[in-house]
Structure to design on (463 residues):
């Protein structure tokens, strides 16, 4: 006999667990199916949270080793205990995943443990038990894109999952893909002592970022010791007792060369994950990239089945998945849930951080939009000088004539926190002048944002 719920969510990542909690808050009888042993999905278990724990540990190590001397602080020999660092990361992850379990109990969301497979339009099966629901939400997330000739063993040839688990610092880490994962996890192991080489297919790193920001970012990483092989592709990686030998070729053709590595990190993107879901039984359609086809309100082609998060089109970001989860739950309850895709911030948690919201200059040019640029460097900010973190700048893009904010890009200390103000401004349809007129506390890094907004009208004060 099938057990019935109002809402069943498949997958307990940031899309699924948030959707389940919001639906329960709105009075639905909700179950969430998760096949992993812990809740929280990619983000909490093998993504955002463990990577940020290691980024913090490695940044603290780097700062103790190189950043304190300038302040007159002597600390003697600085060393790193990798086992302890990894144990701390596991504690951080554990506290977060247990936290979701607590929230499920508090909101009376039933956790169905196991893998869900559709048996029909409103019906699934988990571990031999049948379940039905009026609304079924697919939130099964994503997985690492494989590469022909590069077989992942998660020991020497790793995805992000293996790169988060290394038990010693590699001598030479080769990263395939100059995107967010490669640069964040490359930063972790470089700070701890690895030599890091990034092989990137395109002639630039971080293709989605504003071109000027991306160029500055690459220069800063190169100064830190990152080596880049742009415009190159890896055609094979062979592991033996001594390490890994990679064959690398120019992307546009040319002579191949060999590179030796101790560890290879494959990070060339992620794909929508629907394996084992038996979508065919329900008749749910996917697009040419395997993503579930979802409409404006997350509806699939099958009435009563919806999809959110990494498994549908759009940026693969935890907060995008969360927003979609909330909006969908509210729509199911007859409310006006909505996601503004034009105001979703993105952050790269390297040093310095890189953050963006809204349009890049390249996008505005391609769309033929006339715009003004306001820029301000951290070098001219008193707080950044006091912190000893003067690299980078903030850039504000506003529509010519109306001054409406169209995009904002920051590379510098705490950029990920600073971007929130500009995401709020964009969401509220503010002008650059609106941001510039707001009183910003002194001395704070936020003054860089204010000055960049002033600069859009040619009236920055401190430069
Ligand atoms: P997921 O988090 O992938 O969750 C899907 C869940 O569904 C999984 O737990 C899976 O086990 C479960 N599942 C799948 N199929 C079934 C089934 N048939 N039955 C039951 N359960 C199933 N994003 C950010 O915004 N900020 C970051 O700093 C950031 N850092 C990242 C670092 C790394 C190393 C990685 C890999 C990703 C990072 N991301 C980050 C991306 C972020 O993790 C994803 O965008 C986010 O997790 C997507 O959420 P989701 O709910 O769509 O899917
Ligand atoms: P990505 O899309 O950010 O970068 C992949 C890079 O690999 C691109 O620069 C691409 O040009 C390059 N590439 C593709 N094929 C290649 C090949 N054959 N050889 C060499 N280079 C190749 O993907 P990544 O870094 O794997 O991250 C996946 C997703 O996870 C991101 O899209 C992001 O949304 C999410 N993520 C977000 C984080 C954050 O918000 N801070 C942190 C980590 C991941």
């Amino acid at each position: 006999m099938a057990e019935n719920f109002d809402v069943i969510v498949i997958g307990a990542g940031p899309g699924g667990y948030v959707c389940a909690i919001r639906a329960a808050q709105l009075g639905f009888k909700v179950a969430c199916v998760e096949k992993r042993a812990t809740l929280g999905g990619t983000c909490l278990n093998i993504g955002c949270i463990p990577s940020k724990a290691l980024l913090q540990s490695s940044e603290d190590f780097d700062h103790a080793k190189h950043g304190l001397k300038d302040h007159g602080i002597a600390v003697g020999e600085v060393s790193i205990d990798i086992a302890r660092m990894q144990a701390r990361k596991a504690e951080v992850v554990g506290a977060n995943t247990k936290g979701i379990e607590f929230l499920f109990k508090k909101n009376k969301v039933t956790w169905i443990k196991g893998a869900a497979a559709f048996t029909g339009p409103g019906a699934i099966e988990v571990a031999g038990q049948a379940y039905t629901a009026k609304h079924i939400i697919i939130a099964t997330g994503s997985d690492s894109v494989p590469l022909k000739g590069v077989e992942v063993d998660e020991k020497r040839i790793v995805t992000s999952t293996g790169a988060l688990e290394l038990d010693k610092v590699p001598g030479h880490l080769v990263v395939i893909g100059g995107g967010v994962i490669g640069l964040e996890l490359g930063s972790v192991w470089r700070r701890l002592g690895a030599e890091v080489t990034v092989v990137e297919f395109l002639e630039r790193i971080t293709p989605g970022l504003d071109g000027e920001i991306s160029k500055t970012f690459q220069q800063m990483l190169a100064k830190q010791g990152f080596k880049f092989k742009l415009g190159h592709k890896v055609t094979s990686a062979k592991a033996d007792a001594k390490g890994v030998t990679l064959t690398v070729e120019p992307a546009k053709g040319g002579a191949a060369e060999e590179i030796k590595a101790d560890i290879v990190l494959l990070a060339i993107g992620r794909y929508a994950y629907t394996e084992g879901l038996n979508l065919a039984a329900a008749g749910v359609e996917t697009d040419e990239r395997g993503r579930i086809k979802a409409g404006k309100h997350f509806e699939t082609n099958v009435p009563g089945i919806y999809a959110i998060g990494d498994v549908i089109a759009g940026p693969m970001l935890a907060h995008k998945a969360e927003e979609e989860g909330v909006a969908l739950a509210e729509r199911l309850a007859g409310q006006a849930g909505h996601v503004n895709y034009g105001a979703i911030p993105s952050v790269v948690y390297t040093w310095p951080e890189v953050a963006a919201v809204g349009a890049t200059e390249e996008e505005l040019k391609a769309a033929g939009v006339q715009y003004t640029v306001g820029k301000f460097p951290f070098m001219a900010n008193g707080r950044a000088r006091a912190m000893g973190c003067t690299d980078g700048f903030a850039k504000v893009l506003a529509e010519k004539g109306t001054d409406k904010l169209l995009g904002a890009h920051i590379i510098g200390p705490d950029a990920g926190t600073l971007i929130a103000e500009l995401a709020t401004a964009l969401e509220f349809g503010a002008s650059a002048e609106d941001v510039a007129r707001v009183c910003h506390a002194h001395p704070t890094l936020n003054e860089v944002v204010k000055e960049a907004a002033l600069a859009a009208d040619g009236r920055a004060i401190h430069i």
